[in-house]
Write a structure and sequence with these properties.
Blueprint (H helix, E strand, L loop, with lengths): L2 H4 L5 E3 H10 L6 E5 L2 H8 L10 E3 L4 H6 L2 H16 L4 E5 L1 H5 L4 H9 L6 E2 L8 E3 H17 L6 E8 L5 H9 L3 E6 L5 H5 L4 E6 L6 H11 L2 E4 L5 H15 L15 H10 L3 E6 L7 H4 L7 H5 L4 E7 L4 H13 L6 E4 L5 H8 L3 E4 L13 E4 L10 H12 L9
Parallel strand pairs: 2-3, 2-4, 4-5, 7-8, 7-9, 9-10, 11-12, 11-14, 12-13, 14-15
Antiparallel strand pairs: 1-6
Helix pairs in contact: 2-8, 5-7, 8-11, 13-18
């Protein structure tokens, strides 16, 4: 599926801005050089509220450098200073619009600079600029981490797994441990450099959406000899059981120590009785957060947790409503096995009116849309609030029930 097609159900992002943000969120011993004008670096860094931006440097290209062919020389001097003064584990070089417009040969410049420093110098696959889908950017980031620190030869450990872009929750982790399965690392945005560095120890990569990090997983298979196992999203009771069933199919347990078969919590039946038949508005395409949790399965990773309660789901998709776009959205939904009806809104100001028109009683949406409900009477749950795994089932059910039937305040007479 093309990048343009993937972008239809999640917002696009500037490749340079997105890659810089992901690198700033990654704890580790590395530096980042932005190859472009100082204003470009300033615009990127001023919005970063997380630690890590102190590792960013800039070549400060000026007009004279761009037109005279001296941009490569400035990059070489910058890399020399950063490598010598900081001696980081690796230096990532991000191209900008300015360096791209003059056709700067980043690969050639890095190859030349590498002869003068022992520090590895790496530029992201396909460069660091351009508007792409958030899903594709996460994959590009994964490939960058794989190239930088995970491709070193490591002895694979049997029954050792990486969790790619998702967290199953504490209780499911204990189940895995009880079946002698070791969680090696949880890899995705925010994972530490040290986590990526030990990626190669695992025998398997578990993914709830093999397309989200598709290129990264394919490279891990080729270069690290790892297998990719696609598993259901462990959200909700049925989803958590399906997650365990997929693992049991791969690693059958001996007869004297079977995989657990937990009983549904009593609250599940209560929630079904109170929520079945109610209309849920499930928002897609309104976030730009570069979070694997909300981008997996094109944003539909939590949908099954609502559907198992009997809620009638309508997808509230942000974007234009041109026939070609709607047809592409339907193709994507069909590929994901989702037959829910959809309603489209172009701008957030239309969100409340759309919820009224669709008669939804509960809305699961990006948090910034809460203020756009405009008194339509629908209860609200913020996107991403559902907890994963079996230990998250009851808290999730309580949150849903409290949203649609809030407790009545009792006032003293």
């Amino acid at each position: 599926m093309s990048d343009r097609e993937l972008a239809r159900l999640n917002q696009t992002v500037c490749g340079l801005e997105g890659m810089a943000s992901l690198l700033a969120r990654t704890p580790g011993d590395f530096a980042v050089v932005i190859h472009g004008p100082a204003d470009c670096a300033g615009l990127l860094l001023q919005g970063m509220d997380q630690p890590g931006s102190e590792r960013f440097f800039c070549t400060h290209l000026e007009e004279a450098d761009l037109v005279s062919g001296r941009a490569g020389q400035r990059l070489g001097r910058c890399l020399e200073v950063v490598s010598r003064e900081l001696a980081p584990g690796v230096v990532f070089v991000l191209g900008t619009c300015g360096s791209a417009l003059i056709g700067d040969d980043l690969k050639g410049a890095l190859a030349k600079a590498a002869r003068a420093t022992p520090v590895p110098l790496i530029s992201p696959h396909a460069g660091g600029m351009g508007w792409i889908s958030q899903s594709a950017l996460l994959d590009r980031f994964g490939l960058l981490m794989l190239e930088a620190c995970a491709a070193r030869p490591q002895e694979r450990t049997p029954r050792c797994v990486n969790l790619i872009g998702f967290e199953p929750g504490a209780e499911l982790r204990r189940v895995l441990s009880g079946q002698a399965l070791e969680v090696n690392a949880v890899l995705g945005p925010g994972a530490a450099w040290s986590d990526w560095a030990r990626m190669g120890r695992a025998s398997h990569n578990l993914s709830i959406d093999p397309e989200l990090f598709g290129g990264t997983l394919a490279q891990a298979e080729r270069r690290l000899g790892q297998r990719t196992l696609c598993v259901p999203a462990p959200v909700g009771f049925a989803g958590s059981l399906a997650f365990l069933a997929a693992l049991e199919a791969e690693w059958p347990a001996p007869g004297d120590h079977p995989w657990p078969r937990p009983s549904p919590p009593a609250l599940l039946a209560t929630a079904r009785a109170r929520l079945s038949g109610r209309r849920l508005g499930y928002n897609v395409g309104s976030t730009k957060n570069l979070e694997a949790r909300t981008l997996a399965l094109e944003g539909l990773g939590d949908l099954a947790a609502f559907q198992e309660l009997g809620l009638e789901v309508v997808l509230l998709v942000q974007g234009d409503d041109r026939p070609a776009r709607l047809e592409a959205v339907r193709r994507t939904l069909s590929r994901l096995g989702c037959g829910a009806p959809l309603a489209v809104f172009a701008d957030t100001v239309q969100f409340g009116a759309l919820c009224r028109e669709q008669g939804v009683e509960l809305v699961y949406a990006a948090d910034h849309l809460r203020s756009r409900l405009d008194g339509c009477g629908a209860a609200f749950l913020p996107l991403g609030c559902l907890r994963p795994g079996l230990c998250g089932v009851e808290p999730n059910l309580r949150a849903m029930l409290a949203a649609v039937d809030p407790p009545t305040e009792v006032t003293a007479p």
